[in-house]
Design goal:
CATH topology of the largest domain in chain C: Ribosomal Protein S8, Chain: A, domain 1
Chains: A alpha+beta (244), B alpha+beta (263), C alpha+beta (240)
CATH superfamily of the largest domain in chain C: K Homology domain, type 1
CATH topology of chain B: Ribosomal Protein S5, domain 2
Number of strands of chain B: 12
Radius of gyration of chain C: 22 Å
Radius of gyration of chain B: 20 Å
Order of helices and strands of chain C: EEEEEEEEEEHEEEEHHEEHH
Number of domains of chain C: 3
Helix content of chain C: 25-40%
Number of helices of chain B: 5
Distance between the termini of chain B: 46 Å
CATH superfamily of chain B: GHMP Kinase, N-terminal domain
Number of domains of chain B: 1
Oligomer: heterotrimer
Strand content of chain C: 25-35%
Structural class of chain C: alpha+beta
Largest sheet of chain C: 5 strands, mixed, barrel
CATH class of the largest domain in chain C: Alpha Beta
CATH class of chain B: Alpha Beta
Number of helices of chain C: 5
């Protein structure tokens, strides 16, 4: 049990973990970590530790869910019981179900669903440790898992949150900032197309503050995007420009 | 067959919207007629029925004694639940809540909670042990699109209508006394939902527009024009410019609705 | 009309590959005048055509392809065959049985049973229908011996090599018969188990290093080295 901190931002303008307001947490991404899946990725963002894996496109079960003109994308987001301070029941919570839905809808615009009618793609996300911003980190990882599975996509989807703590707009909120702060705006972006595929908000923000937070979140996405691409390429570093 | 009709309708709706018109004669940022009726279920602590065009939602509140959440030991609890009643649409199946009803409930919940309209500290009976739990149950009775705005409105109207029995605390037990006190609400958060159809935004989409829309965005705004909740839904995407445009319109629309309802 | 990458450079989905009068090829898509990558892979510019050779892919059926699959279900009038693709394939009983087929009397599992491997050709497939197979051509049918290897289907062309140079070299050096299924499944049959193992080793090495230079030479060297090892092992065995 942690006590509420007095202040979320100190006199120097630094946050609890020493970050500047517009600074991301350290991010580590690895692609192709689960050999039995068709595609997978692992992300560490601050203390968040998340695995994402993809199966498909494959025959959809139950069959009556199949669509004649496109792939059915399914997404399951779960938090491990030990991922948070107080044990979380392994049964899916209402939050898990909502997040599964918004994560799926954040990824759907990126996938060419019409290429493989009558099939299904399953995305499984397991949050092993949570420290705020798990939905965003999950999207970043799941998008890579889709690319790793060889599924045709318009763009990668990158996600990041911004919010307000102690009257300052900050990037990439960790758990304490999320809980004690004034607002949280998670955003997902297809950077090359400048398309926002996830947008949620809770807390209180004026119109100006919201604009500032949304822009900061988008900036965060654009910072994570190159890391995502590097992680995807890292599996094939030796490939680089080798002439046959 | 049905997909052919939808295909035709889709074209028709999109063509009209490109001209700034809608199939039911509204402008792009016009709401359907809103009717709010409060206190219609006597057994409930508070209740309200909302008609948004043909969309009909009933909300009832109940207040019971329960346990607080471990991370907020001295605050009361708000629980919002939504039922997509099979009577409301042939596409609603009976059974446990699905992702649509859960999302609906959570978006309504977020709007009320984040606006801080209820002072939950006042609902504490014994810190860490006993608090009042405010249950808001939303019943969708007819689905003609934009369930979120109608449900948020019904939930708020029901809360505004909620009366708590007077009580005293004797040895940590709640004793009911005669008379009632209304639940205090300091804000009126209003949800404003947009549909993106053919790259244009329309407010308060009705069923046929929802069936053809690319994506959806709900913005909940409080009395001071602050945004207190947002939710994007659906498969498509928005550009950053569209989001800011929607945020601006949402503030104006929420003000209009509040004025109309004298809140 | 610029292009934005060097030939054979690694690209990821969403990368802008070319702008202007170009034609989108494999694993790319075009919006307005811009061509983007839709998969992780190596970009190829040939004349006006822009392709991405995918590094990760699954098999998508094509009429005329030869595939190797596993029988997974015996039905009333045919078999369901897993061909390592998003769609299960169908082999009709009438294609296999010469005499008239009576579901009441014939037991299809006596002909082909679940778990059996077949080499087959895709004769029918479109968006609305699962692929349909035939085994009634020479060289097709049930597999009775040899070993099966699975690799990423996009690596099959590399395994074949220029004008079949790679595959014929492996065949010659290992003295094995090799059938390449377009779905990435490969059948290796040799006179001895050691030969088959050698060929499989070579195939796996090609899959792992498919994108590197001088591969043919390295594979030849590897096979020779392994052959020597096998010979010496034999000598030692006969001595003791």
């Amino acid at each position: 049990m942690s006590r509420k901190p007095e202040k979320l931002i100190d006199k120097k303008g630094l946050r609890l973990d020493g970050r500047k307001p517009d600074e991301l947490r350290p991010i580590k991404i690895e692609v192709g970590v689960l050999p039995n899946t068709d595609g997978s990725a692992y992300i560490q963002q601050g203390k968040n530790k998340i695995l994402a894996g993809v199966y498909g496109p494959r025959e959809l079960h139950p069959k009556h869910l199949a669509l004649p003109d496109r792939t059915v994308l399914r997404c399951r987001y779960r938090m491990a019981p030990f991922s948070v301070q107080e044990r979380k029941s392994p049964a899916p919570s209402r939050r898990d179900i909502e997040l599964s839905k918004v994560i799926r809808e954040a990824l759907e615009p990126s996938v060419f669903l019409e290429y493989y009618p009558r099939t299904g793609i399953d995305i499984h996300i397991e949050v092993l440790q949570a420290d705020g911003g798990t939905r965003c980190a999950s999207i970043t990882a799941a998008s890579l898992a889709l690319a790793d599975a060889g599924i045709p996509m318009q763009d990668l989807v990158t996600a990041c949150a911004a919010g307000k703590v102690d009257n300052t707009i900050v990037l990439d909120l960790m758990d304490t900032e999320d809980k004690e702060g004034g607002a949280d705006v998670p955003v997902a972006l297809m950077p090359n197309l400048n398309a926002i595929t996830l947008l949620q908000m809770d807390g209180i923000l004026s119109l100006e503050e919201f604009e500032k937070a949304a822009n900061l979140a988008l900036e965060g996405c654009r910072k994570i995007y190159p890391m995502q691409k590097e992680a995807l390429k890292a599996k094939y570093v030796s490939v680089k420009e080798v002439e046959e | 067959m049905s997909s052919v009709i939808v295909g035709l309708k889709r074209k028709q709706i999109a063509q009209l919207i490109a001209k700034g018109k809608r199939l039911d004669g509204r402008g792009l940022t016009d709401y359907r007629e809103i009717k709010v009726e409060q206190g219609i279920i006597e057994r409930a602590e508070g209740s309200a029925r909302v008609l948004l065009g043909k969309t009909e939602v009933l909300a009832g509140t109940k207040i019971e004694v329960g346990k607080p959440f471990p991370d907020t030991p001295n605050e009361g609890v708000l629980t919002v639940n939504a039922e997509l009643v099979p009577l409301a649409s042939p596409n609603f199946e009976p059974g446990p809540p699905n992702e649509n009803s859960i999302e609906l409930a959570r978006v309504v919940d977020r709007g009320i909670r984040e606006s801080k309209t209820i002072d939950f500290k006042k609902l504490c009976i014994k810190p860490g042990k006993k608090v009042f739990v405010v249950f808001v149950d939303v019943y969708v009775l007819n689905h003609d699109g934009n369930l979120i705005d109608a449900s948020a409105l019904a939930a708020l109207a029901a809360l505004l209508n909620t009366k708590m029995s007077n009580y005293e605390i004797e040895e940590d037990e709640v004793k009911i006394k005669p008379g009632y006190t209304p639940l205090t609400l300091t804000k009126h958060p209003i949800a404003v939902t947009f549909a993106k159809i053919n790259d244009k935004l329309v407010v308060d989409p009705w069923l046929e527009e929802e069936q053809t829309m690319d994506t959806r965005l709900t913005i909940t705004v409080d009395d001071e024009g602050n945004i207190c909740a947002m939710q994007k839904g659906g498969t498509g995407y928005f550009t950053p410019k569209q989001v800011l445009e929607a945020a601006k319109i949402a503030g104006e629309k929420a003000g209009e609705i509040r004025k109309k309802l004298n809140w | 009309m610029p292009t934005f990458f060097e030939r054979r450079q690694l690209v990821t989905p969403g990368d802008l590959l070319a702008e202007g009068e170009y034609i989108p090829g494999e694993n790319t898509y075009k919006v307005d005048q811009k061509i983007y990558a839709s998969k992780l892979g190596l970009v190829e510019y040939e004349d006006k055509k822009v392709d991405v050779v995918a590094l990760r892919a699954f098999y998508v059926p094509k009429v005329g392809d030869t595939v190797i699959g596993t029988i997974v279900e015996v039905g009333f009038n045919g078999w369901t065959v897993d061909i390592s693709s998003p769609y299960p394939a169908l082999l009709r009983a009438s294609d296999v049985l010469s005499r008239p087929f009576r579901p009441q009397r014939n037991d299809l599992s006596e002909v082909l049973n679940a778990g059996d491997l077949v080499i087959a050709k895709i004769i029918d497939y479109d968006r609305a229908h699962d692929p349909q197979l035939t085994v009634s051509e020479p060289g097709l049918g049930k597999i009775t011996r040899g070993q099966v290897v699975e690799i990423t289907p996009t690596k099959i062309p590399r395994l074949i090599g220029r004008k079949g140079s790679m595959i014929s070299m492996i065949k010659k050096e290992t003295d094995c018969h090799i059938i390449l299924g377009h779905n990435g499944t490969i059948l290796v049959t040799g006179k001895r188990l050691e030969n088959e193992q050698l060929a499989i080793m070579a195939i796996h090495k090609i899959e792992e290093e498919s994108h590197t230079a001088g591969l043919t030479d390295r594979i030849t060297q590897m096979i020779e080295k392994e052959k020597k090892k096998q010979k010496e092992e034999k000598k030692n065995e006969s001595k003791t």
